[in-house]
Amino acid sequence: MIGAHTDSPTLRVKPVSKKQSEGFIQVGVETYGGGLWHTWFDRDLGIAGRVMVKTEEGNFVQKLVKIARPILRIPTLAIHLDRQETFTFNKETQLFPIAGLVAAELNRTGEAPEPTAPDRSDTPNTPSDESFAPLKAPRERHHPYIIELIANEAEVRSSSIVDFELILFDTQPACIGGLNSELIFSARLDNLGMSYCSVTSLINSLNSPSALDNERCIRLISLFDNEEIGSTTAQGADSNLLPSIIRRLSVIGSGSDQTDPAYEQTLATSFLISADMAHSVNPNYAAKYENDHRPEMNKGTVIKINANARYATNSPGIALIQEVARRAKVPLQLFVVRNDSSCGSTIGPMLAASLGTRTLDLGNPQLSMHSIRETGGVYDVGYGVQLFESFFEHFGELEGKIFVD
């Protein structure tokens, strides 16, 4: 099995996002995960996500939308007005993006500025059943033009939008960079980079018509959401999702009942690779890395090790993945953090604990993790795909050759 996550730190539109100040239209946003939020300033931002729509039949359906043009931007303050040596800001009051000018929106709609409505909170109100709404309509909670853009993208009427979950993203596309085109400049490499390697390797491992002729194992990948906020959601790695799937797979065709030990036997003979991007050495901050464990870009996937079990890697796992890599002819690297440094974690330890399955943490090296714009190595993508492909193809054979008392 290979497990990875698909989410990244981002900004999410608040349930009531309609704001304006000093002649600017603004959008209220909420931080998701532990992002390097200063990198979100002065970027061209679009919005994307899920919209819930009410159909003419009275059903509620999901629509996915992506407004790829830059409609938002978080402006920095000119250095002339605040000569601070360290860029600091308040995430609640100074991280709101601007979406345009109030005057321009009034010109577009031909409307006059809205007068301040009188407070009628003490006035009795007994609406009819048809007109009663528990919440304000989306056009009241959010800027109407943004609702129109979302409706156009979803190809529905704006009045049919009930609610949405929308996040901001950098509209600049990923690209290949470096003097010799050896680098990838992109958003969300953590962790779409390893998600891509997982999916591609699984597909590639089945290219041959006879790929599964003598296969006694199930090849499985699991891509989770919400790793950046702890994984304790229905779609996160700390949920019952993967255990329930494995339980059902373990008794397929056996006619077994719930007392059959097939599930426990499956866990005992399985192996999980927790695939999450790793840290490349940063030449400007080399002292932050342990002297003998400084992964380099385009020199192979990184095995992550931590004595305090922030990563799930152990020696039997290293023996297995090293043999897998040898057969694929791809390099590997080792990483531990300094003793005086904090250490991140992954879905590996929590899945190892909940499943009792042998687990190893690894990932391709990258720079600027959790920035809006990250940097990876072109060749490491190929190394990761080949490593995982070899893992799927050879695990069934190698599993029986590793003995631990």
Q: Can you offer a commentary on this structure?
A:
This protein starts with a strand and ends in a 7-residue tail after the last helix. It has helices spanning 102-109, 138-141, 144-154, 189-204, 241-250, 262-269, 315-328, 347-355, 378-398, and strands at 2-5, 10-21, 24-32, 45-54, 60-72, 98-101, 161-170, 175-177, 183-186, 221-224, 271-275, 278-279, 301-304, 332-335, 358-363, 365-367, 374-377. The protein is built from 9 helices and 17 strands. The strands form 4 sheets. The chain has a 6-stranded mixed β-sheet, with helices on both faces. A 5-stranded mixed β-sheet has the order 8-9-17-16-12. Helix 4 (189-204) crosses helix 9, helix 5 (241-250) packs across helix 6 and helix 7 packs across helix 9. The chain is α/β, with parallel strands linked by helices.
The SSE order reads EEEEEEHHHEEEHEHHEEEHEHEEEH
Give average pLDDT, whole number: 93
User: How many extended strands?
Assistant: 17
The total of helices stands at 9
By helix and strand content, what is the structural category? alpha/beta
Roughly how many Å apart are the termini? 23 Å
General shape: globular
Strand arrangement, major sheet: 10-1-11-15-13-14
Low-pLDDT stretches: none
As a whole number of angstroms, the C-alpha radius of gyration is: 25 Å
Percent strand equals 15-25%
Please give the largest β-sheet.
6 strands, mixed
Residue share in helix: 10-25%
